[in-house]
Write a structure and sequence with these properties.
5-stranded mixed sheet; about 625 residues; 7-stranded mixed sheet; alpha/beta
Length: about 625
């Protein structure tokens, strides 16, 4: 093992120092110093916890992992049954250098619960919520999760390893993301939104300006009409109104008198109708009485006539007995004296009945004469004056209505004249108010037009053809320089690595920026596609390190450390040797921690950490 060397930190440098884990991932307990100078090699088989050791400080500082899609509960160590331990997990990180701080993040920890604690120079800087505390950590350290992962743990991420194989447009997008141009994209969107809002305000103000201008013209025209309006003689109109009101009163009185006369006539007519109805009722009653008596007389006449007929028949039968001298019914002999007596009695009775029949006929004739003597009352005839009075009343009401209409017209004319006078008196002040409003709208419109100029400028400036294009093109020379140096160290002389920002026409008025790569390799391979796997991997490492340098230069605080996870996959022996030499060179400037399972790397570096895994628990030991 090579001796450790002391590295002198720049004043602004920040180091991740001691990292203590409790039930984090595969680890139950572990404590490792991350700022040991030189190259530290973390050895172990695949899946035993090497990457988890590098993820622990990143998770403590940012709450995120190098691996995507891992839930917070999944960082807790699992018991033999595969369930998160009830004690929860905790990671504590000590920061050294220009900032001395302690950060502790825990999930369901038996002692600290779920939360984040941030202590700077012995002063607790923990905010109200975990999110606020994480944001405060990023503010104080000058690096959010993305910046930290793209500098300290940059080579442990696989997100940008497709930089060479990506299409030109995708390579430009990756590069823009690494440059942090998304903030300019957001700023461009904000500027575009403000520009749209300013356009809407301008349209609204222009509409208001037009409407107020039309209103001003209408007011001025109305003032001119009011000033020249002489068609109404107010005094004559008032006199005509008084006369019309007098006529209306007289007509109303005539209407009332006509209504009274017609009402009286109708009342008298109704009284006569009632008397007539009563007389005709009495006549009908008398007729009914006389008809009943006539029917009685007819009945008595019929009875008398029947008796007379019976008596005549008896008389004739008695006369027949005198000739036969015996009873016609029982053949009994009868004497002449008996027959004469019978004939005398029958004759007497017949005469009596005949007289009674004559009297009945006389009584019937008398009743009929009496009925005919009952005089029928005349049919009721309405008073013809009622119709005449109704016509007169309608005429007077029409005259009264015309008078009302004339009065309404005169009053409307007077009101219109009064309104015109009042409006004419206020036209001047109203016109001044409208003019002041138009001046205010003009001022606001001028201000909005200025905003449109500014928002258009910033929308273009923050856009792809503005500051974004400038930053891309300004960073490319440094990236090309660093990538060329790293490529020469990893591959040898004769290699060329260069990236250019190209522009491709998208439409008649828009350009699409892309990024093309130019690779030349010594030997038979002349491009990235024809290079060997080892050469491509070394080119990837060269570009990754160049991009890391670019991000580190742009960071507010310099993180003087590098985490590298499995950088040697796909490298041949020559490639391993070149990468080893490069890492040793880098470790002279800042501590480097390399996680690998490659046996060819055993014994390199200044410190060796061996990770083993048994019974579901990972342990780390310095050897």
């Amino acid at each position: 093992m090579k001796p450790r060397r002391k590295s002198v930190a720049a004043p602004e440098a920040v180091y991740i120092g001691e990292v203590e884990v409790d039930n984090f991932g595969a680890y139950v307990r572990a404590k490792v110093d991350f700022d040991t100078p030189g190259l530290t090699v973390i050895e172990g088989k695949n899946g035993e916890g090497k990457s988890t050791l590098l993820e622990a400080p990143v998770w403590a500082l940012t709450g995120k992992l190098l691996r995507d899609g891992v839930a917070p509960d999944e960082v807790i160590h699992l018991d033999p049954d595969g369930k998160p331990v009830k004690a929860g997990c905790m990671v504590r990180v000590t920061l050294r250098g220009s900032i001395n701080a302690v950060i502790r993040r825990s999930v369901k920890h038996h002692e600290h619960g779920t939360g984040v604690q941030f202590i700077v120079d012995g002063v607790d800087q923990t905010a109200g919520t975990n999110t606020e505390t994480t944001s405060r950590i990023a503010t104080v350290l000058g690096a959010d999760a993305e910046t930290l992962m793209q500098t300290v743990a940059f080579c442990a991420r696989a997100g940008v390893r497709s930089f060479f194989t990506a299409p030109d447009a995708e390579r430009k997008r990756i590069f823009s993301t690494l440059l942090g141009l998304d903030r300019f994209v957001r700023a461009q969107k904000l500027a575009a939104t403000a520009h749209t809002e300013a356009q809407m305000s301008q349209a609204s103000l222009m509409t208001a300006q037009m409407n107020e201008g039309l209103r001003l013209n209408e007011l001025r025209s109305a003032r001119e009409r009011a000033a020249t309006a002489t068609g109404i003689d107010v005094a004559a109109t008032k006199k005509a109104l008084r006369e019309a009101e007098t006529r209306r009163y007289e007509l109303a009185d005539r209407v009332r008198r006509a209504e009274t006369r017609r009402s009286e006539c109708i009342a008298a007519d109704q009284e006569r109708r009632a008397e007539n109805n009563a007389a005709r009722g009495e006549w009908k009653r008398l007729i009914e009485v006389e008809d009943a008596k006539i029917q009685q007389a007819i009945s008595r006449r019929a009875q008398a006539e029947e008796k007379c007929d019976q008596a005549t028949k008896t008389f004739k039968r008695m006369r027949s007995l005198a000739d036969a001298k015996k009873c016609s019914q029982c053949d009994r002999p009868v004497s002449a004296a008996e027959v004469r007596q019978w004939i005398s009695d029958a004759e007497t009775l017949a005469i009596a009945f005949a007289e009674e029949h004559e009297k009945a006929i006389e009584a019937l004739q008398d009743r009929r004469a009496r009925r005919d003597a009952v005089k029928e009352p005349a049919q009721f005839e309405p008073d013809p004056r009622i119709e005449e009075l109704g016509k007169k009343l309608a005429d007077r009401r029409d005259a009264h209505a015309k008078s009302e209409s004339e009065i309404a017209t005169l009053r409307t004319q007077l009101q219109a004249a009064s309104a015109v006078r009042e409006q004419a008196a206020t036209f001047g002040e109203t016109i001044k108010k409208v003019e002041r409003k138009i001046e205010k709208i003009d001022a606001e419109l001028l201000e909005v037009q200025g905003q449109l100029v500014l928002t258009s400028f910033w929308s273009t400036g923050f856009g792809a053809r503005g500051v974004q294009s400038y930053l891309v093109e300004s960073e490319l020379p440094a990236i090309n320089h660093d990538a060329q140096i790293y490529a020469v160290k990893l591959i040898g002389e004769g290699v060329t690595v260069r990236f250019d920002a190209t522009k491709k026409l998208k439409s008649s008025d828009a350009l699409r920026e892309q990024m093309s790569s130019h690779i030349k390799l010594p030997g038979a391979a002349q491009s990235y596609a024809t290079a060997s796997r080892s050469q491509r991997h070394r080119l990837d490492i060269a570009v990754l390190l160049a991009l890391r340098n670019m991000i580190a230069r742009r960071a507010g605080i310099k993180w003087r450390q590098l985490f590298a996870d499995e950088m040697f996959d796909g490298l041949d022996s020559a490639g391993v040797e070149k990468v080893q030499e490069l890492l040793e060179d880098l470790s002279r400037e800042a501590p480097v921690m390399l996680a690998t399972h490659d046996s060819r790397l055993q014994g390199i570096g200044n410190r060796r950490l061996v990770v083993t895994h048994a019974n579901g628990v990972a342990t780390v030991e310095e050897r």
